[in-house]
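Let us work through a complete example step by step.
Step 1: write down the sequence.
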Amino acid sequence: MKKSLLCGALLALLYACTTSSDVDRSTLSTVDAPDVVYAELDDATRTYADEAMSLYWHEGDEISFFTVTYNLRYRFDGRTGDDSGTFSKTSNKLVTGNEIPTNYALYPYREDTKIMEDGEITFQLSDVQSYAVNSFGRGDNVMIATTKDCYDSVLRFKNIGGYLKLQIYSEAMDIERIEFCGNNNEPLAGECHIRGYYGQMPTIELLDNAVSTLTLDCWQSNRGRYTSLSHDAENPTIFWIVLTPMIFEQGFTVTIYDTEGNAYTKSTSKSITISRNTVQPMAAFDPTATDDSGEGDNDGNN
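Step 2: predict the structure and record it as tokens.
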């Protein structure tokens, strides 16, 4: 079921008392936000991927929805495997905020996510991601939806980042975590600004306090164990890392930690480009193998 989104511009102006000098009272509105919004996954957007790269929502996914500058929380009503459906508001209270140009939504929901009156969203991009089989972890794939105007009732989500696909194999090894960093200390996570545009690609900018190392946690809570590596070089274990679009001009380094306390470092000095909505696969490698070239075994293959 689709319901029209309410627009803050249509509601009465509120001259509430406030001590904040940052609030523009001339655009302050009280909103009875819609109980339900409708969402679709645009282009190759997904909250998780299967082996065929099909596009799905995950049961219980939550988004931030903005019809004014107030962070409303909505939860997916459907089941894992749905590529569209409704999200329901988790609170029935009226909200007050400044008017914004149109409606925006961001996945995943974060309590501290904020939006400015011009539509610029401030979001905390996590430096810890979670392993998932043939996919990225739930909540790691940040997406934004921007409607045509404040009357548009459909949220069409687009991916913010791109994907690095590591392919690893070895004899009898359980992986606790993988640490990733660019060889030029590229910013990878932390506070960022995100902008969405109707019918166009979104943009993201990491701020000066960004961190330069990402950790992929390889604990599988549904199985109660860490991730075991495949023994087969032709069918390696796949590890996905979600990255903001950028060029690693001097390559990158991954450090693989097993459950026995051993660390294996592999590096490539080749320039690697991460593009929005695109998978960058790396050649399969064995982290225990000796490589005298200094290049590592994981040079990129498109």
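Step 3: interpret the result. DSSP finds no helices and 27 strands in the chain.
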